[in-house]
Amino acid sequence: MTHQGSCHCGRNKFEVEGDIASVTECNCSICQRKGALLWFVSRSALHLLSPESDGSVYQFHTHAIKHHFCPHCGIHTYGEAKTPDGNTMAAINARCIEGIDLQAIPVQHFDGRSMK
């Protein structure tokens, strides 16, 4: 299934392929503040419909994760990083996906705050 999504102002649009079986809520210092529900997919499943240059990237701590957001409206649309085995993954903010019932999707809680 193909899902459409965007930031609040619509300048950063994307499509993502796959079925949303669950999302992850992380309590690390950035995720807790963003309030995102993350759907993890292979980076190849994410297709940007707006130029990547229309967005901005924030990195902190070890700079292992690129947190992509819209510099106009401030909404975090996705993050990307490599898995330990070298695959590039995308963490899609499910709150940015159109037409899904977030209440029907199981939420897994991840204790990112305890990760060092």
Beta-strand percentage range = 35-45%
Instruction: Give me the CATH fold name.
Output: Metal Binding Protein, Guanine Nucleotide Exchange Factor, Chain A
**For the record, what CATH class applies?**
Mainly Beta
The largest sheet, given as strand count, sense and whether it forms a barrel, is:
5 strands, antiparallel
Low-confidence stretches: none
Q: What's the N-to-C terminus distance?
A: 36 Å
The SSE order reads EEEHEEEEEEE
CATH architectural type: Beta Complex
Q: How many domains in all? A: 1
Shape: globular
Counted by DSSP, the helix tally is 1
Total strands: the figure is: 10
- Overall pLDDT confidence: 96
Q: In which order are the strands of the major sheet placed?
A: 4-9-8-7-6
Rg result: 13 Å
Structural class: mainly beta
Helix proportion of residues, in percent?
under 10%
Your description of this structure?
The protein has 116 residues and is mostly beta strands. The protein has a single domain, classed as Metal Binding Protein, Guanine Nucleotide Exchange Factor, Chain A (Beta Complex). Helices cover 5% and strands 40% of the residues.
